[in-house]
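Folds vary. Our protein:
___
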Amino acid sequence: MAITHHVHAATYTVGGSGGWTFNVDIWPKGKRFKAGDTLVFNYDATAHNVVAVNRGGYSSCSAPAGAKVYKSGKDQIQLVKGQNYFICSVSGHCQSGMKIAINAA
């Protein structure tokens, strides 16, 4: 008799009810993320965006050439194993804490 475990990916709304906004950089604290989990970014698409960046882009608040930019206001992004970095590339927003770094197991 074999025992199988089905692992279901979780869905997280970035920033909770407040959504993707300023000072969201502390939101991941205390949460355990896994590769395959989905992040939902809810925001005003006329004021913000979501850019998947590398560590350098996260640290410098700049989007490298060719970075994937999401602009729908209701973006769903699946986490990959390891570090995942996201910023808002609108001028001054990342510097105001509109960025997250997530380590997915």
Observations:
- Residues 43 and 86 are 14 Å apart (CA to CA).
